[in-house]
Design brief:
Length: about 60
């Protein structure tokens, strides 16, 4: 889980290899380095799990 020190009304942004996680009252917004939205998730755990799965899929598809 991302460690955050926040009040519920203040969005918090964390970086993970060019991917930004913005945690709000409504859920976690995940953005790519260019600012495009990758996904919106109800919890930060779900966001992290999906991003990990996507990254592992990209890594495994680049192996020859």
């Amino acid at each position: 889980m991302l460690e955050t020190d926040q009040k519920a009304s203040e969005p918090v942004t964390e970086n993970l290899i060019g991917i930004r996680f913005t945690i709000t009252d409504y859920g976690t917004i995940v953005r790519a380095g260019d600012g495009s939205v990758i996904g919106i998730y109800p919890t930060e755990d779900e966001a992290l799990e999906d991003v990990r799965e996507r990254c592992m899929g990209v890594l495994s598809s680049t192996k020859t």
